[in-house]
């Protein structure tokens, strides 16, 4: 979280109210200059499952998320932002049940966007996914071009949240990214980077066809003012916008992907 003390209450209460109680809650604060630290400390006093990591220099979403994955001890991990919230109390229990039933690496569910008191769907792969998908099909189905709707977009939801991922699979995915890119301050497409790596190493995937998570988009939660934050040591190696897609070319070559997947990355760059 970064400067999200105004909305973190909703996110944490939704997690605490989950019917699945045997969980660990890692909150990593990326050099906030609001009262985020004090807010989380109050939650920690009432809930011993919450662990806080506070950074006094700006690290960026990708590096912060990778840090959380490395620290996580649970069998499965779900990555959330400070303005995300679960829709109902059984989503973790239900997705974990499905994951354990099939010994699946990734179980995803619908994610929605909440704007001006209305919900909007943001996942685009529904009709392309039936049953469990295994490798090697998992690599290609999530990174091919969807010519029916928009030939410049892959059919996958590129967000890393809205899914539970087996611990060792998530750790292997970020190991493939490596310090070369996690040490850079990447402003955009960090979800895409992690998704590309994740679907190369995951061996099985299942999509649950009902909503479980929503992201609240409002002016306050979307402000990205890290460059104006005088209390932070701003990182010099900042990667902006489409420059971060250089990472995808690096990863594609590293993982020896197919021509089809390379073509998709070129389309994204255009």
In short:
The chain has helices at 8-16, 36-46, 61-71, 91-102, 137-141, 167-177, 179-182, 190-201, 219-222, 246-255, 259-269, and strands at residues 25-30, 50-55, 76-77, 84-86, 106-115, 118-121, 132-134, 145-146, 150-154, 163-166, 185-186, 204-216, 238-239. Helix content is 37%, strand content 23%. The strands form 4 sheets. Strands 3, 4, 5, 6, 7, 10 and 12 form a 7-stranded mixed β-sheet that branches.
Q: What this model shows, in words?
A:
This protein is an alpha/beta fold and 270 residues long. It has a single domain (8-269), classed as Spore Coat Polysaccharide Biosynthesis Protein SpsA, Chain A (Alpha-Beta Complex). 37% of the residues lie in helices and 23% in strands. The protein is built from 11 helices and 13 strands. It has helices spanning 8-16, 36-46, 61-71, 91-102, 137-141, 167-177, 179-182, 190-201, 219-222, 246-255, 259-269, and strands at residues 25-30, 50-55, 76-77, 84-86, 106-115, 118-121, 132-134, 145-146, 150-154, 163-166, 185-186, 204-216, 238-239. The strands form 4 sheets. Strands 3, 4, 5, 6, 7, 10 and 12 form a 7-stranded mixed beta sheet that branches. The protein has a two-stranded parallel sheet with strand order 1-2. A hairpin with a 2-residue loop joins strand 5 (106-115) and strand 6 (118-121). Helix 6 crosses helix 8 (190-201).
